[in-house]
Amino acid sequence: MRVIPDGPRGLFIRYLFAVAIIAVLITISHMASIWVHKTQDGAAENINISGRQRMLSQRIQLFAERLAAEPGNADHRRALTDAINLFEVSHTRLTGADGTEKARSLPPQLIDLYYGDQPDQRLHALVAGFVSLARNVEAADATALPAATRALESFNSEQLLQKLNSAVALFENNAVAAKARMSSVARIGYLMALLALLAELIFIYRPSYVMILRTVADLKSTNRKLAHSEKAALRLQRQTHEALEETRKSRDEADRAAQAKSQFLANMSHEIRTPMNGIIGMSDLMLETDLTPEQSHFAQTISDSSGALLNIINDILDFSKIEAGHFELVNAPFSLRNVIYDVASLMTPLATEKQLEICVDYAETLPEFFLGDGARLRQCLLNLMGNAVKFTEAGHIEIGVKYSRRWGLRITVSDTGIGIPRDKLSSIFDAFEQVDTSATRKYQGTGLGLSITRNLFALMGGSISVTSRVNVGSTFNIKLPLEPCDTATPEKNTDATEIRGRTALIVDDLPVNRMILQRALTNLNMETLVADGPDEVKNLMEAHHDRIDIVLMDHLMPGQTGLDLCHAFKAKERFRDIPVIMLSSAEVAAGRKDQQKYGLADALIKPVRTPDLARAIAAALGAAAPTGPAQPSAATPPPDGLDGITLLVVDDNAVNRRLVRLMLKDSGINVHEARDGREAVARYFDLRPEVTLMDMSMPEMNGPEATRIIRTREAEEGATHGCILGFTANILPADRDIFLTAGVDDFLFKPAKKDALIEALRNAVGPAQRTRISATV
């Protein structure tokens, strides 16, 4: 079995193996050389120490004799002590602290010299005896000093010196032998490294050289082949260039097609919205007149159908802009609470028609203001709520809001509707997809709403998913990375003394509503009791009527309505003084009519905001005569401020001009007309109107050109800046930019409702008129 492969890889492995062997041999040789030097250094040190011992022994005897001659000389005694200490240290360096540790590493001859079988011949014993006698001299006083000195002189110094000389000789002989051994090892290592290098030259470099020659030959052959294929590469390059040119032309054509598509959609939007402005406006005006029930039904059908058609057009335009990548979002502070409750309020009439309840779960502890595109979030939630109402025949729809700095904003839209089959969940957000695509389907629509919603959430950096069970309901889960901001201070809850510590009885057959109301009242520092129907209400009223301060009563409940239940317990004397606030999913006007009859303190429409609920409770508990019905506060009339102003309506469509005149016939506004931009310029400087409604697309001179001329002349003459509103069906961003550049102040898009038109005019002439956009363009 071959372990090392052939070819370049095998040569490379052999080379590495040979280099490794050489490196090991050289390392061993080098270590042997280092050991030789180390041995020499150690031997020299031992020889020096042994020689020092011989010299120190003689110095000890000399200093002992001097001390005996002069017992009181401190220098002689100090010199003797230093010599004895150095002698002991030298001996310890050679043999170890206890005479055994170092001995284990000494050669056998030195071990026999220091620790031989004859006790009187042992060098270690001689050194110990000599040191002991020297210490006696060191410690003796003047009286004992002569005897101690004679004992030291009688010591066999010649034997000690001979033993020390023998130790020096043995250390030297041992070092020479060790050096010879390690030098041999080093020479053998270097020799083997040379042999390995020779083997490498023979068995590795020579085959490598042969292989290099073969490779050079192969390269020459390859170069010849490359030379032949170069022409083919050049041909391929030319073909690639031609293909890229064709791709560029196709891309340019696609861009022109996309631009043409966008322009077509803009034109179609304008052309469709212009007549629709007349249809919707006239139908709304017709509904304000005295009509027979049948005529009123016809007019309402026209208005509803026009609104549905307008929603379809808006969906198609939004889908087209998203698909083309031209959709832009606004990043500005907005009130999420207002968005949620506005969506719920807008959908409440449709839900009421189907006897559905809309619940809003927005805790007071959550932030109110966030940074993002509130208008587009409202559009998405309207899409989801519209679907929820459409596909729910009984039960309720709930909007829930949660926020955490860790996982961001979470919004859920849940319903108790028909649900979505499991096999349709993966495609429900695709464009033009519907759960039921048959020609006889019950629920109509374009199938764009959820697709647009998903794409808008994706543009916001979020996502949407759905869970559903057939005939149980669906829940759409929205995740958005929106952050709260401190642009404005949220409306504070009413915390009057009438509310704090009071007890409220919550009556509602829907658990979600009971939970939401209970949490809201807890935040208002109130205690709560809950009941889900007439029987439980009666039991709680009987048991706790002395501590119940107010009742929050649902209107529509199975078995017995809230009004009937209120009438029943108001008939009893002990319950008559407890105020009742009716919460209804129907129009509040119906509840207002019943206040006198049933003795209601107030009637609020669901979903009710916590501040509104707090104010109603505080008013009911603080009323001077709790037994009488609380009268609803009169609505504050909207500010007028339009009487006598001059309005110039510029539009080439006579129906649109007449529609504006009819919408404003009772407003006290002086309405004047112009049929195109050229006439608008002339009439503008004749009339000097406070507000001008300027259409964009007109013959002779369009709206932006007329606006530009007006702004230029105003600047030249130093005239007062008149408010110009772009009154147009063109809603694409490019069209807005054209109008803004020309100098308009704001926009009113067709088709426009009467209320929207009046509100736009009030904003234009009111004291809080916004800073003109044209000043910043």
Features:
777 residues, alpha/beta, five-stranded mixed β-sheet, 20 helices, 17 strands, 57% helix, elongated, disordered C terminus
SSE blueprint:
Blueprint: H1 7-69, H2 74-95, H3 108-115, H4 123-139, H5 145-153, H6 157-287, H7 293-324, E1 332-335, H8 336-353, E2 357-361, E3 369-372, H9 374-390, E4 396-404, E5 408-415, H10 449-459, E6 463-469, E7 473-480, E8 503-507, H11 511-523, E9 527-531, H12 534-544, E10 550-554, H13 562-570, E11 580-584, H14 588-598, E12 602-605, H15 610-621, E13 646-650, H16 654-663, E14 670-674, H17 677-687, E15 691-694, H18 703-717, E16 723-728, H19 733-742, E17 746-749, H20 754-765
Parallel strand pairs: 2-4, 8-9, 8-10, 10-11, 11-12, 13-14, 13-15, 15-16, 16-17
Antiparallel strand pairs: 1-3, 4-5, 5-7, 6-7
Account of the 3D structure:
The protein is α/β, with parallel strands linked by helices. It has 20 helices and 17 strands. The strands form four sheets. It has a five-stranded mixed sheet, with helices on both faces. It has a five-stranded parallel sheet with strand order 9-8-10-11-12, with helices on both faces. A five-stranded parallel sheet has the order 14-13-15-16-17, with helices on both faces. Helix 1 crosses helix 4. It is elongated, with a radius of gyration of 53 Å. The C terminus is likely disordered.
